[in-house]
User: Which sequence fits this backbone?
């Protein structure tokens, strides 16, 4: 990769001046935050049958143990190839996050009982609301971007007003406006279409700016070469400019899709039975909020990971030609 | 592997279009805002003629040749290409661009397409030629600009000189009557200038009508029928290369030549 120079600078974590103070700091922080009194600390103290009854000794023991594990872990991971390092670290951090959730003393029996409904009703709704919104928002964004770059005053006016309004108003407000406002005009709209419409309009407005910036980033010489060859405006845009602009458009668009996925939870305010709504209502019945929230969060996370992977694939495709 | 076969860059024989000049420019004026970039320019390019346009930076050379294929607009005057009046109407612009090929200083190859696709795309989309015929024709012209076996590479994998020759092949694939070159060698390293000029010389030898903005005076002497010298948006002087280089009449032309020839 061109981001790294061809010089083997000493690895950050292999420098004693970095890792010794680093481990020292970790040890100090653990000691200061009374690691011995945490649930993990207590478990460790019990496991080793040492230092029971003495908080200071327990703190010292736990801090030392954790620091040693971290040091060992770093030493091992340092020896892997960059790819394996990446995976190893990713998995370790994910396990820590899961461990954090695990420490909440969750009722897995409750989760098992509810997850079916959460998935078949909540996840499915979230998925199709998001998927339709993603498609509609992309179409709106493309139209908006072309309008913004056109020399048509009316199109320009509409596009500018559109992005200003829908980027400017809070999404929650937009959802209410469409769901409660449109019936005032005589158009009764169901909750799901209202949610989809609001998400599409809002994210279409954000993405209009992304698409516009992507198109504008293509040098003027590309337009000129295409015109000189006689290509019509439409072909110039779709065959020459957009394929190149995609490289620039895709990363921020992937971001928007992930954000939209989670913002789709806002449509629960109008009573759409999507993931977040069900997580909240199902938890209420038995005072098991945390279980449902964590389950829903993990589902969102998994969906985001899927989107990230899709994005990476598409990026690779458009990067095929090494560009100047 | 020597290719000794004489390659012809121009397929179409000189057309029997009588006396219609390739390009007629009449009293052309152009403004960028309040700045007048072209001042009442009159210029006729005959069929088969090789014209070299030179002049100091900012004198309006690019602006002039870019008006010929409507990459720049103009406010006053008239341009006729093969007798077709260039207006802002889509049909007029289409008809003109069909007859005019252009080569840019910065090559402007399409980086997301291979060399072959660069040469085929407009054939497919504009001429409606079949995939097979388009590919044959593109390969034919790539062969002629001596881009051997690079057809499936991307532009960024070629040297500057090769890229510019691909750009020439791309323009030729459309089989234009007139070729415009805007400083085609100015962005090239010295050792690559020659390969591009050789290709252009070969093209000239085959009867193509050419308008070339360049400061390559060797090329002008060897190839040009006429040299046009511009300054501040005007054609100040014109003549055959030998007249112009050995005995420039205007002070501005003399000053320019002394600077460029050291
Ligand atoms: N888009 C533009 N807007 C405003 N002024 C412009 C624009 N394009 C060119 N000009 C001006 O018009 C004049 C002629 O420009 P042009 O590019 O035709 O010069 P040139 O002879 O090709 O110069 P060079 O040798 O540097 O390429 C210059 O003074 C330039 O500053
Ligand atoms: Mg120029």
Assistant:
């Amino acid at each position: 990769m061109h981001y790294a120079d061809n010089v083997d600078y000493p690895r950050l974590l292999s420098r004693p001046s970095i890792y010794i103070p680093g481990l020292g700091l970790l040890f100090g922080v653990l000691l200061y935050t009374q690691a011995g009194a945490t649930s993990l600390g207590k478990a460790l103290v019990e496991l080793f049958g040492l230092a029971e009854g003495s908080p200071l000794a327990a703190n010292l023991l736990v801090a030392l143990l954790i620091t040693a594990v971290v040091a060992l872990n770093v030493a091992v991971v340092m020896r892997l190839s960059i790819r394996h390092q990446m995976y190893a670290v990713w998995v370790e951090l994910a396990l820590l996050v899961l461990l954090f959730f695990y420490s909440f003393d969750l009722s897995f029996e409750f989760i098992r009982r509810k997850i079916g409904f959460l998935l078949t009703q909540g996840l499915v709704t979230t998925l199709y609301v998001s998927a339709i919104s993603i498609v509609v928002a992309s179409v709106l964004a493309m139209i908006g971007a072309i309008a913004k770059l056109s020399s048509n005053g009316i199109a320009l006016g509409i596009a500018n007003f559109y992005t200003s309004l829908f980027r400017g108003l809070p999404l929650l407000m937009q959802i209410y406006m469409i769901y409660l406002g449109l019936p005032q005009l005589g158009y009764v709209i169901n909750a799901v279409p209202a949610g989809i419409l609001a998400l599409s309009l809002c994210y279409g407005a954000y993405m209009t700016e992304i698409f516009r910036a992507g198109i504008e980033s293509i040098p003027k010489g590309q337009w000129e070469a295409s015109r000189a060859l006689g290509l019509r405006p439409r072909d110039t845009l779709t065959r020459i400019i957009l394929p190149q602009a995609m490289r620039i458009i895709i990363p921020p668009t992937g971001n928007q899709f992930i954000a939209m996925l989670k913002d789709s939870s806002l449509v629960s305010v109008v009573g759409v039975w999507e993931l977040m709504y069900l997580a909240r209502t199902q938890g209420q019945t038995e005072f098991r909020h945390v279980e449902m929230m964590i389950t829903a969060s993990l589902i969102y996370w998994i969906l985001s990971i899927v989107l990230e992977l899709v994005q990476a694939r598409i990026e690779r495709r458009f990067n095929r030609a090494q560009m100047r | 592997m020597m290719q000794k076969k004489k390659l012809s860059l121009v397929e179409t024989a000189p057309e029997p279009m009588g006396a219609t000049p390739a390009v007629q420019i009449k009293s052309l004026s152009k403004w960028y805002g309040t700045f007048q970039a072209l001042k009442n320019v009159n210029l006729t390019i005959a069929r088969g003629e090789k014209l070299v346009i030179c002049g100091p930076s900012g004198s309006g050379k690019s602006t002039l040749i870019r008006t010929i294929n409507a990459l720049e607009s103009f406010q006053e005057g008239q341009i006729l290409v093969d007798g077709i009046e260039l207006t802002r109407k889509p049909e007029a612009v289409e008809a003109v661009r069909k007859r005019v090929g252009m080569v840019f200083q910065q090559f402007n190859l399409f980086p997301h397409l291979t060399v072959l696709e660069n040469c085929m795309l407009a054939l497919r989309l504009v001429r409606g030629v079949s995939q097979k015929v388009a590919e044959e024709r593109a390969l034919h012209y790539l062969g002629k600009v001596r881009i051997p076996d690079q057809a499936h590479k991307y532009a960024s994998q070629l040297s500057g000189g090769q890229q510019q020759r691909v750009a020439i092949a791309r323009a030729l694939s459309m089989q234009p009557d007139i070729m415009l070159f805007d400083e085609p060698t100015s962005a090239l390293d010295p050792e690559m200038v020659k390969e591009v000029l050789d290709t252009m010389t070969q093209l000239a030898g085959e009867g193509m009508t050419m308008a070339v903005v360049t400061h390559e005076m060797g090329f002008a002497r060897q190839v040009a029928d006429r040299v046009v010298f511009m300054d501040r948006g005007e054609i100040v002087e014109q003549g055959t290369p030998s007249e112009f280089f050995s005995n420039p009449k205007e002070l501005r032309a003399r000053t320019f030549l002394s600077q460029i020839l050291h």
Observations:
- The mean pLDDT of chain A is 90.
- Chain A touches chain B through 22 residues (CB under 8 Å).
- The CA atoms of residues 71 and 201 of chain A lie 50 Å apart.
